[in-house]
């Protein structure tokens, strides 16, 4: 249903990075992406119009924007509504800061064209009260591809004598709050300034209490005329002023008040000899390392987050770092042991710093548990899955979990392969095969079922009623027995199935055929157990891959622990050879799709020392052109001097594997 998505990027402190993470997550979900970078093209109207014309010709199924940046004007209204394309709006800032009367009328008049995903539940109820439909809660998330650096806690034991370079770290900017206050004092009447001063100071004294709760208390303590409403423009401006000024002040006050250690501050500077100051750090290349190598990472949340979590919670968690954070309600959903890592006052923060600074074991254990919680259900892959389920009508209310069932990895083949010990397949399964799984298949045979997670999902989602697994590894087979109907711990090429002919509706081979001595002989045997009109669903690595070809032409054939050249693979296929084999077996392929991966995925597969950075850049450039629908056959011919190359073949060079479904004729 959704195959092509346009993502709109714009400038901001965190917005560009969030959208980059969503780009990767949508690609991992199997969608083609078109990037409309308004920050880059905003001052170039001719180039912007040309890009929009390309977008219109590309015909996406879906558009996603950070805030209202996707509300692009066209002659007959907003562009995506005119095109008949649903726009997903990610409200990772307070949505009321930018919601004016014109935009609200657009949302209420054309409700089916817009889907609103709001990070703070405090704002969600009011959005719905304003008759803005299709409004859902969504959190920020982690991008494990960037925030699990080599050497983080989950990859090797931490040496606490050498690995921790900073005791207490804080990363974030602190703007001139005194200038903000001066401007506010000059513009607002005395009573308003008194109210805002008391509001901000109360928040500093009680950082865990939402601003709007403090606001209500002040209404009862002498400011009844300022009862808050998002529909009151004046009060909305006051809230915004409190957020801007108070968020900077609370950071400064808490950092200046740390006595239990000498903090390191990255990205801000002021006069304080008790703090080590550093310059700004790059979000992807430097931030994960600091999070992983700090004994304590400090999170101080901005005032506009009433109940929601900022990106530090997820980034620090994914990086394997330990964290102390002020409390927010959503933390309970992410990390059940949140009480250990939260502080509620300046004194509480100093006490916790003193306690944890030299308790390496306790810090490490909490960091590992937080990392597990984040990776199990709070990556951008999980968020994309949630968004797509909303669009498909599978989510009816906000109680639906945004992540996945703990212990089940729904991150797709790229994430699962890159970040698990692929040779034993523990906890990994190919979510794309669930997506293309045919309807009406009550009885399923899962060959190479590993620990049974794939079949468990089929049973849980009522996609089948009986799943029989075959697994050669005794350890994983025992786990699968707890999840599937029946499991045989056998060598599948020597095992005779104890079922009558035509018993199964579907045979599944998820990353298993390539491990067999003679997969075609096995398939021929198994087809007798598949009913007429039954299906085969499988994923098969693609050896006609640009990285493989590049290495081969340079004399290298490098086996790896996972991926296309997994050292346990015995058979290798191109798309053409897959088609020939299935034709010989009397199978008609009715659906096939490539699983595309960017250059960083292959760098992880091979190891960074085996991949040229220059070739990664070439590969990523060609991949993006391919995803944008450009003809790259000329580029490929020039790159490796192909004599004959059809345009429809070009995408094959970027496929790590193919997901397919065939029917028995």
Provide structural commentary.
It is a single chain. With 665 residues, the protein is of the alpha/beta class. The chain has 3 domains: 4-141, Rossmann fold; 160-377, Glycogen Phosphorylase B (Rossmann fold, 3-Layer(aba) Sandwich), CATH 3.40.50.2000; 414-543 and 561-598 and 652-664, 3-Layer(aba) Sandwich (Rossmann fold). The chain contains 27 helices and 21 strands. The strands form 4 sheets. A 7-stranded mixed sheet has the order 17-16-15-18-19-21-20, sandwiched between helices. Mean pLDDT is 87; it is low at 149-162, 397-401 and 403-428.
Protein topology:
Blueprint: E1 4-9, H1 15-28, E2 32-37, H2 38-41, H3 45-58, E3 62-66, E4 73-74, E5 77-78, H4 79-83, E6 87-91, H5 101-109, E7 114-118, H6 121-129, E8 135-137, H7 144-147, E9 166-171, H8 177-187, H9 190-205, H10 211-220, H11 233-256, E10 263-266, E11 276-278, H12 287-293, E12 294-299, H13 311-319, E13 323-326, H14 331-334, E14 342-343, H15 346-356, H16 360-377, H17 380-391, H18 412-419, H19 431-435, E15 443-447, H20 453-460, E16 466-470, H21 474-481, E17 486-488, E18 504-510, H22 519-526, E19 530-541, H23 546-553, H24 575-584, E20 587-596, H25 599-606, H26 613-627, H27 633-640, E21 655-664
Parallel strand pairs: 1-2, 1-3, 3-6, 6-7, 7-8, 9-10, 9-12, 10-11, 12-13, 13-14, 15-16, 15-18, 16-17, 18-19
Antiparallel strand pairs: 4-5, 19-21, 20-21
Helix pairs in contact: 1-17, 8-11, 9-10, 9-11, 13-16
């Amino acid at each position: 249903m959704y195959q092509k998505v346009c993502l709109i990027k714009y400038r901001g402190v965190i917005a560009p990075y969030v959208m980059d993470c969503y780009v990767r997550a949508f690609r991992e979900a199997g969608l083609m992406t078109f990037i409309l970078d308004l920050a880059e093209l905003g001052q170039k109207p001719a180039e912007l119009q040309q890009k929009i014309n390309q977008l219109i010709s590309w015909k996406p199924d879906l558009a996603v924007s950070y805030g209202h940046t996707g509300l692009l004007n066209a002659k007959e209204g907003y562009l995506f509504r005119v095109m008949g394309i649903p726009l997903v709006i990610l409200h990772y800032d307070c949505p009321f800061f930018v919601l004016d009367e014109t935009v609200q009328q657009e949302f209420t008049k054309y409700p089916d064209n817009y889907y609103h995903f709001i990070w703070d539940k405090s704002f969600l109820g009011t959005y719905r009260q304003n008759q803005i439909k299709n409004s859902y809660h969504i959190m920020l998330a982690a991008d494990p591809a960037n925030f699990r650096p080599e050497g983080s806690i989950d990859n090797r034991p931490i040496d606490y004598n050498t690995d921790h370079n900073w005791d207490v770290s804080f990363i974030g900017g602190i703007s001139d709050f005194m200038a903000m206050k001066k401007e506010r004092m000059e513009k607002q009447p005395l009573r308003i300034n008194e109210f805002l001063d008391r509001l901000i100071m109360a928040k500093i004294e009680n950082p865990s209490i939402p601003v709007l709760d403090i606001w209500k208390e002040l209404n009862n303590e002498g400011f009844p005329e300022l009862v808050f409403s998002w529909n009151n423009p004046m009060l909305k401006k006051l809230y915004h002023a409190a957020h801007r000024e108070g968020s900077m002040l609370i950071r400064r006050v808490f950092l200046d008040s740390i006595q239990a250690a000498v903090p390191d501050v990255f990205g801000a500077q002021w006069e304080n000899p008790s703090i080590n100051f550093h310059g700004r750090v790059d979000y992807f290349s430097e931030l994960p390392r600091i999070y992983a190598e700090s004994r304590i990472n400090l999170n101080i949340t901005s005032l506009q987050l009433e109940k929601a979590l900022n990106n530090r919670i997820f980034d620090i968690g994914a990086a394997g770092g330990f964290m102390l954070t002020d409390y927010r309600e959503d933390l309970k959903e992410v990390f059940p042991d949140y009480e250990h890592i939260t502080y509620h006052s300046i004194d509480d923060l100093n006490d916790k710093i003193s306690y944890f600074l030299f308790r390496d074991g306790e810090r490490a254990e909490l960091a590992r548990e937080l990392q597990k919680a984040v990776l199990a259900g709070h990556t951008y892959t999980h968020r994309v899955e949630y968004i797509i389920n909303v669009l498909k009508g599978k989510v009816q209310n906000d109680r639906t979990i945004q992540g996945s069932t703990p212990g089940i990895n729904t991150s797709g083949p790229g994430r699962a392969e890159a970040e698990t010990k692929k040779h034993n397949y523990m906890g990994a399964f190919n979510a794309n095969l669930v997506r293309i799984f045919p309807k009406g298949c009550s009885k399923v045979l899962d060959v190479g079922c590993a620990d049974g997670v794939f079949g468990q999902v089929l049973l849980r989602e009522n996609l089948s009623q009986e799943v029989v697994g075959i697994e050669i590894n005794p350890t994983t087979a025992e786990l699968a027995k707890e999840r599937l109907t029946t499991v045989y711990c056998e060598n599948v090429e020597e095992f005779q199935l104890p079922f009558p002919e035509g018993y199964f509706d579907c045979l599944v081979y998820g990353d298993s055929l390539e491990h067999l001595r003679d997969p075609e002989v096995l398939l021929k045997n198994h087809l007798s157990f598949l009913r007429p009109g039954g299906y085969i669903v499988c994923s098969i690595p693609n050896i006609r891959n640009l990285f493989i070809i590049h290495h081969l032409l340079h004399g290298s054939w490098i086996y790896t622990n996972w991926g296309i050249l997994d050292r346990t693979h015995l058979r290798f296929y191109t798309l053409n050879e897959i088609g020939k084999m299935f034709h010989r077996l009397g199978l008609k392929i009715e659906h096939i799709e490539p699983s595309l991966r960017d250059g960083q995925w292959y760098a992880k597969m091979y190891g960074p020392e085996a991949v040229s950075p220059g070739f990664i850049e070439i590969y990523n450039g060609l991949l993006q052109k391919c995803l944008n629908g450009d003809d790259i056959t000329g580029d490929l011919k020039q790159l490796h001097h192909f004599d004959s190359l059809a345009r429809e073949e070009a995408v094959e060079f970027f496929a790590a594997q193919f997901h397919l479904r065939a029917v028995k004729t």
